[in-house]
Sequence to fold (135 residues):
Amino acid sequence: MQKLIRLMTLVCLTTPMLMTAQTSNVTLPQDKGPNSVNVSTYPPEQQKAYKVFTDKCSKCHTIARPINTMMTNAEWERYVKRMMHKPNSGISDSQGKTIFEFLSYDQTNRKDKNPSAFSKALSDEEIEKLKAQQH
Ligand code: HEC
Fold:
């Protein structure tokens, strides 16, 4: 019992510390859009990949953020790597590849068909500006 209490105290104290180390501390326009994709017409492997994507990419910010961001394939590839390399991202190489393939399929088959419904990716400078406004 003692041990359990000590463990719970430790978890309660360290979780917020870990969270602030990684969590995105800014609200982007993309965060305010829909937070799911209807993948019922996607190929089965992309439906599976969608689960990996929603699980892994919602750790530090809304899942709405990537769902509502427009990028080219090359930009998605670079971005997934960038997210993977953030401390404690919890995304392995093979999961990163699965996620990239989903984002690429979704970009071509959903976003590119209706570009005005989605936000363009912001530059680092634009994100810094929003952070300054919001704090
Ligand atoms: C370890 C934390 C973390 C994880 C995991 C993570 N992100 Fe991010 N993400 C961030 C941070 C931090 C930013 C930058 C903005 C900020 O500072 O809040 C960001 C920004 C973004 C943006 C906005 C880009 C722009 O320029 O407008 C997209 C899109 C995005 N992430 C997609 C993803 C995807 C896809 C995944 C899953 C592969 C993912 N993120 C996983 C932390 C994370």
Remarks:
- Strands lie at 69-70, 119-120.
- The pocket of heme C is lined by residues 22, 24, 26, 28, 56-57, 59-61, 65-66, 69, 79-80, 83, 86, 88-89, 91, 99, 121-122, 127 (CB under 6 Å).
- The domain at 25-134 is CATH 1.10.760.10 (Cytochrome Bc1 Complex; Chain D, domain 2).
- The radius of gyration is 17 Å.
